[in-house]
Amino acid sequence: MRCCEIGVRTIYFFALLCFTEMSMIQIGDKIVSRELFDNHFICDLPSCHGNCCVFGDSGAPLEDEEADELSNQINEIKAYLRKESLRAIDEQGSWVIDDDGDKVTPLIGREECAYAVFKKEIAWCTIEQAYEEGAISFRKPVSCHLYPIRVNKIGNGIALNYHRWGICEPARIKGKEEGVPVFRFLRDPIERVYGKEFYDELELVFSELNKATTE
Ligand code: SF4
User: Fold this and answer.
1) pLDDT (0 to 100) of residue 214
2) C-alpha angle with apex 35: 32 to 41, nearest 5 degrees?
3) Structure confidence at residue 110 (pLDDT)
4) Which of 126, 165, 201, 214 has the least CB density, counted as fewest CB within 10 Å?
5) CA of residue 215 relative to chain centroid, distance
6) Longest CA span, the chain
7) Interval between CA 49 and ligand 1 midpoint (Å)
8) From the CB of 167, is ligand 1 less than 6 Å away?
């Protein structure tokens, strides 16, 4: 073997080693947690009952524009809501400010999101239902759609982190059984928020990681 081949291979080896050991991977102005590639996830509603709409200290986080969308389209959404939800929204408004000062969806008591409806003991999102039936143009809060990705602002960019919540254990089991990594399960919301090009980059990173770990 010639020296230059050894050199190139050594550099390549160390590059792969660094890549495989990275916990965060930079793609453009985004830092992506390695956990989105290494963990598996497929929501398993019959097992988890959609409890992400029920558990937690406050409602779903909303961007400013999303809070405006809810305010503007609340009359159309109301047609899908239960009387408990209507009462909560009439009393609190279509969105509220939580203890951390963030805009979030209102809750019923300290329990489920006011926009949740239950069918066969499974919580569903009425905002999404209204959107799918063409009643409104706002699909659902990005924070719900992207879950279990949590987005954190860092400097001029953002970090996409994996949030591990005990109630989602059935999703981790189902995702592992079917071999679906977290980022791929979230293809639709990732493309909705960050575009197809960014999603394609995630696929590339995933395939490089797989190559690196099998070499
Ligand atoms: S995010 Fe978790 S709790 Fe919500 S539907 Fe998926 S697995 Fe169930």
Assistant:
1) 72
2) 115
3) 85
4) 214
5) 31
6) 78
7) 8
8) yes
Pick the residue whose CA is nearest to atom 2 on ligand 1. 168
Give Cα 207 to chain centroid, integer Å: 21
Q: Is the CB of 175 under 6 A from ligand 1?
A: no
Cα 187 to Cα 122: distance, rounded to the nearest angstrom: 23
d(CA 147, CA 124): 15
Integer Cα distance of 38 and 58 in angstroms: 29
> What is the Å distance from ligand 1's center to 162 Cα?
13
Q: Is any atom of ligand 1 closer than 6 Å to the C-beta of 182?
A: no
In short, whether 113's Cβ falls inside 6 Å of ligand 1 is no
Q: What is the pLDDT of residues 40-95, one digit of tens each?
A: 999 999 999 999 999 988 999 999 999 999 999 999 999 999 999 999 999 999 99
pLDDT tens-digit profile of 137-176?
999 999 999 999 999 998 889 999 999 999 999 999 999 9
Using the structure block, give the residue that is written with the tokens 């988890």. 48
Q: Is the CB of 81 under 6 A from ligand 1?
A: no
Range 135-141 contact pairs with CB under 8 angstroms and sequence separation of 24 or more: 135/76, 135/77, 135/79, 135/80, 136/73, 136/76, 136/77, 137/69, 137/73, 138/66, 138/69, 138/70, 138/73, 139/192, 141/60, 141/61, 141/62, 141/63, 141/66, 141/105
What percentage of the chain reaches a pLDDT higher than 70?
Answer: 90
Does the beta carbon of 48 lie inside 6 Å of ligand 1? yes
**What single letter denotes the amino acid at residue 62?**
L
Tokens of 184: 């791929």
